[in-house]
Structures are given as structure tokens and as C-alpha cells.
Fold this protein.
Amino acid sequence: MNSDAYGGLRLRSRKIGGSGLGLAIVAQAIIQAHQGSLNVQSQLGKGSTFTI
């Protein structure tokens, strides 16, 4: 398995099975706990805008 080490923790990349959704799931849970909302607008090749 090829992964990077950071502070003794092994990080997973999309190449080796990570989905890239962990941070988004945690952020959504924190925002909901504070009665907020998270909106995302994305355009292929242009990027994404996140509004909290």
C-alpha cells in the first residue's frame, strides 16, 4: 500500500481506496449541530463554491 505519513498518521488517497468524503461528512455534522447549513455549487473544470 502506498500512502503518505503525516505526524505518524497514515493518510489515504483516492488512488488507494479513499473516497474524499470524510471532511465533507464531518463538516456537515458540525454545521447541523449548530443549526447552520452547507451549500455547494460546482462547475466541472472551474471549481466549487462552499457556502456555510
